Amino acid sequence: MQRIRLRYTKRGRLRFTSHRDFQRAFERALRRAEVPMAYSAGFTPHPKVSYANAAPTGTGSEAEFLEIALVEVCDPDKLRELLDESLPAGLDIIDAVEARTSGLADRLTASVWELRLDGVRPEEAGHAVAAFLAAEAVEVERRTKNGLRTFDARDAVAALEVARPQPDRPGDGPCAILRLVVRHVTPAVRPDDVLSGLRAVADLAPPVPAAVTRLAQGLFDEESGTVTDPLAPDREAARPAPPMAAGPAAAKAPEGAGTA
Amino acid sequence: MPAESVFPQLEALLPHVQKPIQYVGGELNSTVKPWDSTDVRWALMYPDAYEVGLPNQGVMILYEVLNEREGVLAERTYSVWPDLEELMREHNVPQFTVDSHRPVGAFDVFGLSFSTELGYTNMLTALDLAGIPLAARDRTVDHPIVLAGGHAAFNPEPIAEFIDCAVIGDGEQAVLEITEIIRAWKAEGRPGGREEVLFRLAKTGGVYVPGFYDVEYLPDGRIARVVPNKSGVPWRVSKHTVMDLDEWPYPKQPLVPLAETVHERMSVEIFRGCTRGCRFCQAGMITRPVRERSITGIGEMVEKGLKATGFEEVGLLSLSSADHSEIGDIAKGLADRYEEDKVGLSLPSTRVDAFNVDLANELTRNGRRSGLTFAPEGGSERLRKVINKMVSEEDLIRTVSTAYGNGWRQVKLYFMCGLPTETDEDVLQIGDMAVKVIAEGRKVSGQNDIRCTVSIGGFVPKPHTPFQWAPQLGAEETDARLEKLRDKIRGDKKYGRSIGFRYHDGKPGIVEGLLSRGDRRVGAVIRAVYEDGGRFDGWREHFSYDRWMACAEKTLPELGVDVAWYTTRERTYEEVLPWDHLDSGLDKDWLWEDWQDALDETEVEDCRWTPCFDCGVCPQMDTEIQIGPTGKKLLPLTVVK
Question: Which residues 281-310 of B have a C-beta within 8 angstroms of A?
Fold first, then answer.
């Protein structure tokens, strides 16, 4: 049995896809593309797909990961192309490697997020960020299945900064872009929670909902304060010889972590 | 109205609503055409929530038929839930299509498909959100033509005030003919405005324009007559019938939603129409004659559809799927073809007398034998004669006996309550039937874990059926009868616990009855309910019987009628029915004879297998029965790797 790890996106309006919606769409894409999937045993066999750490409904993502098990050996690049074609635009498969190592999930310890706050001036956001980072702990509340829950949103945040304003946005009013690196902890701290935290410490209240995108996900590197490509070890294991020239464009190391 | 996408405004609202994915479009196999490359543009609506509307075959077919044509564009819109409606009103976002998020008001035609009358209030919500005046007479040349279709459109009188026109029957060819008329009118510079284009449509005899007809009433409230008020407008409007289904293999590219919907499968309509002649069944009466898709046509649609969608279940749809002349070969052929691919087959609407275990075995080759569903509809032999559902108790017991003997453990039985001539005794016999089914199951299987679920709906008399004259049973009487049955089942020590009992109370049926057999005066009730906040009447959590009754009391008495007049009142032969000028092909005298036969408990055969009994449809509509067998088989598909 061959296992393939895929990196996929939730872009544009398809960021409103819930994880369950994505699962159905992906499994149908597998059937359309006639991927030789391995199936579970039992009365209702299911294709073997493991999903890791899905982004919340409504947030975009450039870095979602899953793993599939096949009964025939396939070329990862061809499979990537085939599946990408089979999925609606916006749910794009942008990287594929054969699994050569264990523990993909263990290598997903932090995420890099971009938060676009339309109608918020960068200076205003900068003050809020400074106050947030200066705090020891920032208590926030979130409604969960078990009622309102209070937890600290500060500790999991490894980095938070206001990105340089984009010059190509004339006349659209102010807009602040935050870059956030957050460690995966329990209970999970989501970008929404950090926004609640900014409101708690500095009354930052964006007039429209923030556009949130996960840029990268991977092993958190304490030294650089950013994350590394979780598929890199598989790629290296597959190609022990001197590193090849550039792989698929989308497979480039995650960027945008910045330095906090 | 400008046709620009409203998505930027909508997008800001989506994080605040439930299941935002239903509003974003982008479904696999959806079509987005450049606006300016087209000259006739349709907004198609299924007036219910996306999860119900998206899988609707009618809308899917018309969407594809229209978009295949050069210069024609069709986009879809569905009812928005109250949470989004509130935000849209607050932020001035109009009713939009999910394909390109264009305002519905910018289209040439706003076509709504009504499977049920309970979508009427949702239509008013959509019109209002779209900025289209609710009343047709208040619209200008720049507003879309509001067109109703679907089964409920066979009596569009209750919504006559709100629609510009209605089309009855099959839509495939009709939408194209309408498109051409609108195209020509637009190309000429829209001469004569709205009235002129509606007149051109009405003149064809296939489009009903309520505004061109006056209804005159008798002092007692009944209709005196319905008369065209404009010369050139035909006295009656005909239904449309598509002949040769193999020429119309739609949907070819079924939509695959990202959101979860009520039917997650690839549906293929294996035939249209039904002549079994069940007297309560409007669908069977108005879709005559039977037209089968050929076994090879079905095979091709399944193959292409699965490739295009990736669905793992195929539903072979029709009004009584086991009646297809080659259903055995179809099921076996498909089961053979897709055995390896883990594709399941389902056959909704299977009659007890058409069921056979070979067929059922083919359908469940890969899967579990959990449940079988049959619809005897009437609890007693006598009542089944009245409704012309010729299923004997022996048939049923023999069938379930075979099923239990072959590994099935659960049987679900559908019935109706409130059928004409029904007494308490008829309904109580439903309990006896369930007991016999379980006793037989225990005997045959040698096991005790046999279940039988009895599911009961209230009967609503429908236009264009032999029961169109029948009195509907009142809500309280319906409830009382069902309570007696419930007590009887619960009181059965030996079998009661093996019988599941599901029923709906009689109240929604009264509202459905009011809307089904209503006339133009009922429009005032619909408007009042909408204005009072009525939405999503097909949903138990939104439906309010009290609101409907309160609004009816406010509006109907001054018109000399009331809810009972429309529902529980029996009609006589002479009465002009509100839908008499809409021609379903059925001869009114034949319907009346069939109604009398019902009262005499006399059955009618199926004209597919016996001589014609003169229902009138084929000669009136110039159609004919199209059935096999073709003698062809589905060959295995060659696998190309």
Answer: 306-310
Q: Find the helix or strand (DSSP H, E) in which B195 lies.
A: helix B193-203
Dist CA B305 CA B314 (whole Å): 9
Alpha carbon distance A192, B479 (integer Å): 50
The reported pLDDT for the residue numbered B402 is 87
Q: Quick count: other Cβ atoms within 10 Å of Cβ B59?
A: 27
User: Which amino acid makes up residue B310?
Assistant: G
Interface test with A, best of B5, B17, B21, B262 (most A CBs within 10 A): B21
Class of domain B7-236: alpha beta
* Confidence category of residue A244, pLDDT binned at 50, 70, 90: low
Q: Are B96 and B10 in contact (CB under 8 A)?
A: yes
DSSP class of residue B154?
G
Let me know: does B567 contact B513? Beta carbons within 8 Å.
yes
Q: Pick from A91, A113, A124, A108: which is nearest to A12 by CA?
A: A91
Domains of chain B by residue range? 7-236, 265-367+605-634+637-641, 368-505+572-603
Total of domains in chain A: 2
Top-level CATH class of B265-367+605-634+637-641?
alpha beta
User: Cβ(B266)–Cβ(B250) under 8 Å?
Assistant: no
Chain B contact present for A46, CB below 8 A: no
pLDDT digits (tens, 9 = 90+) for B455-488: 999 999 999 999 999 999 999 999 999 999 999 9
Distance between CA atoms of residues A255 and B462, nearest Å: 65
Q: CA end-to-end span of chain A, whole Å? A: 43
Q: Is residue A189 part of a domain?
A: yes
> What are the distances in angstroms from CA B435 to CA B33, B96, B451, B486?
58, 52, 10, 13
Q: Do B264 and A58 touch (CB under 8 A)?
A: no
CATH of the domain at A25: 3.30.70.580
Q: What is residue B465's three-state secondary structure?
A: coil
H/E element, B415? strand B410-417
CATH class of B368-505+572-603: alpha beta
Residue B77 contacts residue B88 (beta carbons within 8 Å): no
Residue A230: CB atoms within 10 A of its CB come to: 26
Q: Which residue bears the tokens 């705090």? A: A135
CB B96 within 8 A of CB B108: no
Quick one: A138 and A152 in the same domain? yes
Give B-chain residues touching A21 at CB under 8 angstroms: 21, 258-260
Q: Which residues constitute the domain of residue A117?
A: 110-224
Partner-chain residue, chosen from B21, B28, B312, that has the shortest CB–CB distance to A17: B21
**Lowest-confidence pick of B214-223, B304-313, B361-370, B390-399:** B361-370
Q: Do B11 and A18 touch (CB under 8 A)?
A: no
Same domain, A122 and A50: no
Measured CA to CA in angstroms, residue A220 lies from A180, A190, B415, B540, B580 at distances of: 13, 16, 62, 50, 75
Give the Cα separation of B19 and B17 in Å (integer): 6
**Are A209 and B16 an interchain contact pair (Cβ–Cβ within 8 Å)?**
yes
| A28 contacts chain B (CB < 8 A) | yes
Q: Residue B553: is its pLDDT beyond 70?
A: yes
Q: For residue B225, how many other CB atoms are within 10 A of its CB?
A: 13
Q: What pLDDT, on the 0 to 100 scale, is given for residue A144?
A: 81
Letter string b/e over residues B538-577, b meaning 16 or more CB atoms within 10 A of that residue's CB: beeeebbbebbbebbeebbeebebbbebbbbbebeeeebb
